[in-house]
Amino acid sequence: MADKPIEGEKRVFMTGNEVVAWAALAAKAEIMYGYPITPQNEIMHYWTRMAPKFGREFLQTEDELSAGFTTAGGVLAGRKAFTATAGPGNTLMQEPMSMAEAMRLPVVVVVQQRGGPSTATVIYSQQEVTMTTMGGNGEGLRVVYSTATHQELFDYTIKAFNTAWKYRFPTFVLGDGYQAKMRESLTIYDPEARGVTLLPAEAYLGKPGTPGVDRPPAQYRNTYNVEEELYEVLQGYFKDYEKMAPEIAEFDAFDTEDADLVVISHGVVSRAAKGAVKELRAAGYKVGYFRPITLRPLPVKELRALGGRTKQFLVAESANGQLARLLKEAAYGCPVEMLPMYKPGVGITTEEVVARVKEIAG
Amino acid sequence: MSVQPAMPKSWRMDTKPHKFCPGCGHGLVLKALGMAIDELGIQDRAVFGCDIGCSLLSWDFFNVDSIQTHHGRTTPVITGLKRANPNLIGIAYMGDGGGYAIGSQHLVNAAARNERITAILVNNTQYGMTGGQMAPTTLPGQKTETTPYGRDPEKTGYPVQGPEMVAAITREGSYVARGTIANLNQLKGYIKKALQNQIEGNGFSFVEVLSACPTNWRTNAEETWNMVEKEMPKFFKVGEIKVPGAGKEGQENG
Known about the structure:
Chain B: It comes from Desulfotomaculum copahuensis. Chain A has 362 residues and is α/β, with parallel strands linked by helices. Chain A has 2 domains: 9-194, 3-Layer(aba) Sandwich (Rossmann fold), CATH 3.40.50.970; 252-361, Rossmann fold (3-Layer(aba) Sandwich). Chain A is built from 12 helices and 15 strands. A 7-stranded mixed beta sheet of chain A has the order 3-2-4-5-7-6-13, sandwiched between helices. A 5-stranded mixed beta sheet of chain A has the order 10-12-11-14-15, with helices on both faces. A two-stranded antiparallel sheet of chain A has the order 1-8. In chain A, strand 11 (261-264), helix 9 and strand 12 form a beta-alpha-beta unit. In chain A, helix 1 (16-26) crosses helix 2. The longest helix of chain A has 22 residues, at 227-248. The mean pLDDT of chain A is 97. The longest helix of chain B is centred in the C-terminal third of the chain and has 16 residues, at 184-199. Chain B has one domain (23-242): 3-Layer(aba) Sandwich (Rossmann fold). Helix content of chain B is 35%, strand content 17%. Chain B has helices at 26-40, 74-84, 96-102, 104-112, 153-156, 162-169, 184-199, 214-217, 221-235, and strands spanning 46-50, 65-68, 89-95, 118-123, 126-127, 133-134, 175-180, 205-210, 239-242. Chain B is globular. In chain B, the strands form 2 sheets. Chain B has a 7-stranded mixed beta sheet with strand order 2-1-3-4-8-7-9, with helices on both faces. Chain B has a two-stranded antiparallel sheet with strand order 5-6. Chain B has 254 residues and is of the alpha/beta class. Classes of the chains: A alpha/beta (362), B alpha/beta (254). The A-B interface holds A 30-31, 33, 57, 59, 61-63, 65-66, 69-74, 76-79, 81, 95-96, 99, 103, 203-207, 209-213, 217-223 and B 10, 12, 43-45, 47, 52, 56, 59-60, 62-70, 73, 76-85, 87-88, 105-106, 108-109. Strand 9 of chain A pairs parallel with strand 2 of chain B, so a sheet runs across the interface.
């Protein structure tokens, strides 16, 4: 059996789904549970081909409810476990993720967004932002990384396992069908060779010793008897989350200092926004670029500072204002005007962003 | 004269008396399970998963590592756990609503995949925790909150034959039985065999247990036992339905 999936560093040209499988291997993920849904299928395809060579496991479940709950079971047993899904599968995935939130289970989920509502398209969207950040009957106690490039798919899939196991909140890598299916160059690497410490997993259940004799039994519940009991537990969770938020919130920005208008986007759309802002700057427009990498938690401090000194935000997204809703909440009370550029379920090009900014500028 | 009833060693004493209603069958099923755990000496590697519904009250019942899951989702949680650490003995404990309605796809597929886990399903013919609605196991004519004039099989079907279904979709190596709280020694034997079958890695193990819910049945002691011992067995045949090594037909006893 091969020792390490990746020795040192390697320049590769592959699809995003293949990247995720390599990243999970590199992150020392031990088991994947999954159910077929486009456009994430090839994550399973590559995982099932590579996993046995490195002593890793796979289980194909009967649906995404089961994929999520078996992943929770794998985590409870003390394994780095993950699953991947999209669209209607992500809808079902929200039930197990609410249990993961309630029990602080470090489950990792890769989501490759497709069109919605319903079955919609198998191709692309950014319409799973609301559901992935705030899904389930709860309070959004999860971490969501929105990737823009294949390099980021690799980097953040590895990071997702560390964030999950360090803070014990379910952690999502939010990609999309374009990233899933497109081929792109990137460098894959052994994270430890780069000095990245991979946090070890730890069993919740089945630790050594006889419960009640050598140690207290490990017993986890998600049901509480009275309102105050739940309230108290949640206060502890909120406190942990608030402490974590500034430690993990990430963003990318440039040319915002003197900008009258800042284009805000996330994920793959930010690549169009980046190109547009560079082009507009070269043409003399006072525009800036801002991209939250963590959609949950958002980089609130930076957003508010930006919203306090910029006249306009142009929010470009392949959804009907799902990112904008998060931004409005974060920037509430800031004087900035928020302008929409919504193309639900459809990609956004550099040219379109340039044209829209010029139109706004008049 | 004061004699303390013998409690299984694997029970967690500081959570007793338990939280179930007076006359509830869960305590008896969990006693049989506790004795089986004791006799097999697996307290240190058993993991007890309980569903939502009345079974959720058992989350701190044993001195055994335990996980309370969602309604219908105990089977996949224990499946995932067992796949990740095959040394553990995974026990999925659920009611008839959890196993045969909302979680039926999990039961069917775990059985079909021959997951090396032990599922114990308590059949009390209705949804207890939510106040006595019709379940897949409700008897024809039985009054529940959602069949106030009695279950009409023409409109809502006949009681689900769970173990028979599981037996039909599993292959050699699985263990399937139906026990009853009216015969605890037999029930303990079934549960023990179901656990032993997992320990030996033979295959999926499933025990349905005929149980009682006097609270929602609105029955006194005599009526309760009449239901468990006479009415329920008319539809739910007690015995072993599939035993590894016994050939296709299985065997029956009890």
